[in-house]
# Entry
Amino acid sequence: MDLPIKISKDSREPIYHQIVNQFKALIAGGHLARGTPLPSIRALSKDLEISIITTRRAYQDLEVQGFIKTLQGKGTFVADISEDLKEEVKVTSVHNILENAVETALSYDYTLEQVKAIFLEILQAKEKGDS
Amino acid sequence: MDLPIKISKDSREPIYHQIVNQFKALIAGGHLARGTPLPSIRALSKDLEISIITTRRAYQDLEVQGFIKTLQGKGTFVADISEDLKEEVKVTSVHNILENAVETALSYDYTLEQVKAIFLEILQAKEKGDS
DNA sequence: TATACTGTGCATATAGATATATACAGTATA
DNA sequence: TATACTGTATATATCTATATGCACAGTATA
# Structure
């Protein structure tokens, strides 16, 4: 299991929140099939150099939101969620953040045309060797 | 002076931060010309129902960043910043948030084409009666 | 059964945002 | 000059989010 979970300890966003969001994206995005075991809280904690409690909090949040399920003594696994739900999570997450970005641009007095132009530039940059 | 400063006390974003960002957008976006007086810290505090210290902190941050200047006893005013600087603030702020949104979409396994389609939908919605 | 894994619960530490009180100092103006 | 505005400084209190350490409990398996 070589999960691409990366956290920033300097970010304003809480660590447990970063973990939750990244797993949500991996699960809703289809990179983690149902039943797949997640790293144990101790393993992930050691890997990310954070406390067990922080990892646990992230896993608890994910469980409450229905993305994973934990079995004491056995481990933590990707929950059995429907494709519809995954799709809905994808759509709303991405829609919200994009809409928020547009709102911010408008608050800076950009016109819709300008926002579109900037956005298309960003996409073009991504199409080339950005990553 | 009827400033459109709105804060959310429930937001994860600190109140002073919300105030800073909104004034930045108003100033960089050209809605507040240089020399325009801002509300006094006491007036804004009362208006937003927050403490004077919180307002003061926001104003101090804005001053450090060069957007306003305060004169003891006189008040607080929009600073004399160049159009170039305003433009740079606009560009970087909006570019960053849009880029971040795209990154998030990619993390959810959307393709660039899909992101573009969703984005264009949002723009179209805005063009109609969204506000 | 021993042991080495899993997750769990509780009590606490730390940092940051915010609120409050108090006193001070500069400015405008009737 | 009186007063009613401005901003300033400082010290403290409170609340909350976040992170943590430690002891406990369930499970798998050699």
Notes: Residues 14-16, 50-54, 57, 71-75 of chain A lie near DNA strand D (CB under 10 Å from a C1'). Residues 83-127 of chain A form one domain.
